[in-house]
Amino acid sequence: MDPERERMEDLRGLIEHHSYRYHALDQPEISDAEFDRLFRELQEIERSHPEWITPDSPTQRVGAPPSEAFPAVEHVIPMLSLDNASNEEELRAFDARLRRILGGEETIRYTVEPKYDGVAVELRYDDGRFTLGSTRGDGRTGEDVTHNLKTIRSIPLRLRADPPPLLEVRGEVFMPLQEFDRLNRERLAQNLEPFANPRNATAGTLRQLDPRVSASRPLDIFVYALGRGGEALALGCQGELMARLAQLGFKLNPRRAESVGLEGATAFHSELERDRDGLPYEADGSVVKVDDFALRERLGELERSPRWAIAYKFPARRETTRVKEIRAYVGRTGVLTPVAVLDPVRIGGVTVVHSSLHNQDEVARLDARVGDTVIVERAGDVIPKVVKVVKKKRPSGTKSYRLPSTCPVCASPTVRLKDEVALRCPNLGCAAQVKERLRHFGSRRALDIDGLGEKLIDQLVERDLVHRPSELFGLERETLIELDRLAAKSADNLLQAIERARDAPLERFLYALGIRHVGERLAGVLAQHYGSLDALLEASPEDLEAVPEVGPIIAESVRVFLDDRANREEVERLRGALRLPSAPAPLRSKVHGLGGKSFVLTGSLSEPRTRVQERIEAVGARVTSSISKQTDYVVSGESPGSKLRKAEALGIAVIDETELRRLLNA
Fold first, then answer.
1. CATH 2.40.50.140 intervals, the chain
2. Which one of the listed residues 115, 251, 385, 643 is annotated catalytic?
3. Catalytic residue at 115?
4. pTM, 2 dp
């Protein structure tokens, strides 16, 4: 080998070694000056021989040009969320439930780790080299943020200790509190708005188009789980996994309890809660996991979460502050929401200045008034909530608050519909409603129009340029570049995002319409059932009710929306702007006898539920979480619960896994 190339390889190994000692172990062996000297020497060699540069070189942590977008990444093994326990009683109920499913196990051993308030990611390594990094996203599809993850020094670009050919490692990226405070001080000095909390700062950093910006905001990571490739490591428990991850070169949080009983888990959680304010990162609880992997397999998974793990949350943080004002905000559907404007107060590292009071009934229950001293908590360490008015401190002369009889934005008389708590502005042309509809329409989970932010929407509406979502597709470059703080490049990016939105799938389009009671899940159900907009438009209320998971209230809501003349005209305008499917997708029921059938799973199955669900859905059937008269089959595993009794009472067919496999293979 060429001596210079050999020196390059040696330098790469040395730099990775010392980077691992410094960032992962916090045990540096050389000075910063010596590390910098090695790094500069490597840069010089690569500058002279650019053909030798490889993606896993330490110099390539910040080596990519700014990206135009973040491609989608599918998680072959879904990244599930966790169920929550808010107190010790609920944690003990979780333990009892697992022991019951396992047939009376006397003791289950757990691993307990802090629950970080960061961004979950998946890191893919091919032949030991970091090749792809993605966010959790919705659990099944995330975003490719490889170049930004490369800027995190504690993420190894090459694995150590004989890794398998493919390995997906999962962990949580976070911003250390010390770095968060430094970043906000810098932003304030530059007259920029500070980040609300470390998690927002982390998410914003990972979604930077230019990785050089990410590199200027130091992030860190703790890893704790595997995706694909884990079977090659032949591990038996979480403790063995953590030891193997450390051997491979990953950074672990040393603060964890391994292979402890329930009492050990509660003791760890209590100790962590006591030290909460002194932790160098934001944490909102602990994660309690069954330690033994064989037991995890027996326990299986629910639709959205593993049965063998739970997030044990800390109590909500509370502080006292004063109500400066109560304002009425108008939402997308015209609902007026009273919002308390507060004297700024820090709660768990976040400055809280607003708290929703939800509706007039909640205002009356609290008897919240301007000038009142109130107790505010961040429920789940996220949403600010007024929980109590300190009436002993109420100043004299305060008045009860009532929502206005006219819309605060367009002055239309407000109405209260029958059987509703909410007060509404009935004017669909109200600027506040228009803005909220546009925000929803262009949001990531709807048509995902990147660049259509709040300030831009405000300008478009206030300058009378856009009155409805369909008009977004007629915007021109010359119009956009005249708007405040929208340069030509940003205008071009927005127009490209709008053009991409024309090919949105039917389920995203239906969700973007903002039909009451139709969230992402129901939009997907309707899109899969009808296959085209035409078929849905022609569906009667009775037809809609026959769709799995659609009841009479949802069916009526869909028909009321689609039968409204103004809504129907807007749907037709959007149909002309978008490239929606024009004919129903071929029903898989034509090629398999189970097509269109509804299944419910109960009890402990021999493999993860997600795999069983995927096989059922592959033949055109559906898996739902609850039993109804529309359920065709209940698949019963070991230790079935109340669903089995309900199925028997309704006369629904109950089958085991053997019979399910026979039906699927028929």
1. 317-393
2. 115
3. yes
4. 0.55
